[in-house]
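Today's session is about reading a structure prediction critically. Students often jump straight to the picture, but the first step is always the sequence itself: look for stretches that repeat, for charged clusters, for runs of hydrophobic residues. Only then move on to the predicted structure, which in these notes is written as discrete structure tokens rather than atom positions. Here is the chain we will use throughout the hour.
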Amino acid sequence: MGVVTDWSGARALVKTGPPIRMRSLRRDDEIEGWRVVEIAPRRVVFGRDARRHIVALFASPVRPAIASPLPDASASEGD
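Below is the predicted structure for this chain, in token form.
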């Protein structure tokens, strides 16, 4: 899934299936009973009755853990 914005507005690109195919949706379009409520750069919101489903795009990357320095191998060789 992704979002594309051009002179005509925002579109959500959604993969459906099977068979797998890409669909281009605008606000208020429907897909499998869900209506596109909002298209933002980092999320798409779908609505059905009183329910909302938010699909987050491009989640923040996981920060790498800080590794402890390796013990100095040469220090233990002389023991």
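Discussion point for the tutorial: Helices lie at 73-77.
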